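Worked example

This section walks through a single chain of length 527. The input is the sequence exactly as stored; nothing has been trimmed or padded.
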Amino acid sequence: MKKSLLLAGLFMAGAFSVQAQTRYVDDVFTDADIVVQSDIVYGVNFSAYVPQSLGGPQVIPLYLDVYMPDPSVDTEQDRPVVMYYHTGSFLPKGLVSPMGARTDSAAVEICKRLAKKGYVAVSATYRLGWQPDNTSNLDLRRGSNLLAVYNAVQDAKNSVRYMRASALQGDPFQIDTEMIMLLGQGSGGYITFAYATLDNYAEVAAPAKFQYQDTIGIFGGKVNIGDPYVDTAVVGDWNGFGGAATITGTNPNGLPTIDFNDPGRNIENIAGVPDNVNLVINLGGALGDENWLEPGEIPMLSVHCVNDFYAPYDSGMVRVPVNGQFWDVVPVAGSFRAIKMANENFNNYVFQRESFSGSVEWQISRSHAANPGGYSGIYPIGIEPADPNLPFAVNANPWDFWDPSDPLGANETNPNNKAQSLAYIDTVMNFIIPGMKAVMDANDISIAEPVTVDFEMYPNPTNGDFRVKSDNVIEEIRILDIAGRVIELQNPDEDDFRISTEGWNPGVYIIQVKSGSLTGTSRLTVY
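Given that input, the structure is written out below as tokens.
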């Protein structure tokens, strides 16, 4: 990363003095300083869900809006990017909800707030549509929903590549291509979780829950029981490559037309540009399968309503409302389960090692009753259903607000109180910004050191003493609990050292060994 997160002095006109604020943490710009570039086409791809009234399935454009400090008032040339993906149940805005577009009120509010802190915030659309069938056809509900998430991840990766490519073509947004973070709300949370974890075909093809139960495909074709819903020969891989459609020309709008007699339905966009990111954040949503999450993946931050009926907070079933009834879609890992795993796999170590002593929200998050274990990266919101007999009528998206004259608002459990929604957005920002800064600091000073100290630790697991032994002189042993709190610090200055676990609670601990400039980390289980 090219920038420093030192205090930025804002020099104001006239006789005003310098006001020291922390860029990327505090508001260093005003609303008047923010510019928005709207309706930028970042790619095109095939959508199977364009209604017949609009021409039926076809290739559609994909748009994004960029919020950033005006370059005339901001001299920073390398600004971190936050990509924002909106809510809406993967269905078009106005179909079942007043939300579901990159211009939703919460999307605009959050992007503007990020821009005022100095970020470049990008609100991007993605392909929408699936078949929330209200019959017993599980394949339609589950398979088309999985494909909706899959296509959206492809589009999200395309949008990240677009932003990186822009830096190679004049850098109009003045971005740091090495610091890109994702923020997904509602259905966007499914996207960011999958973006961070879905990295091989077996993850979507092997689980039985992602395979056909019948012999009729979700688009009407013949399939075999056990075939995966995702066929990369048709839709491409999780990065958006392969399954290439045969282009036959262009339509009057200049968009590609494809040959429907050939199997491919994917348009490949911006090949050769990386789509890796540094952090993913979700406000609601879930992880499609807990086996997607593995050691070595990027850090995650989550904000989630504990009583969310539609996307489980811990683990459970995704549900959708269709014609006044509720239908199960697929079992998933909720935000708490995902963050717990991210901690246990040390993917969230950048947060686990921090005390965040100055953040009330981080202290609340680690001590909340819905976060047993005090895991780093999950902020539970404990809104109760207004009526315990109606558990589905819970405000699980309290940051949303919309035009009160929209008749679809009658279906929402959110009270549509703008002041209340803005207060929840305050809480969200106060939680995620320290985490984002921790990730940026880590990239600046290379905190994530390679494991270069060879050491043994035994017995492991243990219910008593254990030894740490190395060929190097061990100068420091730091012991952290799974929440990232330092519980013991030793300075042995020898190569073989014994430590007692007396008084430790059963669980997993992080053992960090330091010798000179070299550091190694391992896990110890105490039972």
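What to look for: The domain at 455-526 is CATH 2.60.40.1220 (Immunoglobulin-like).
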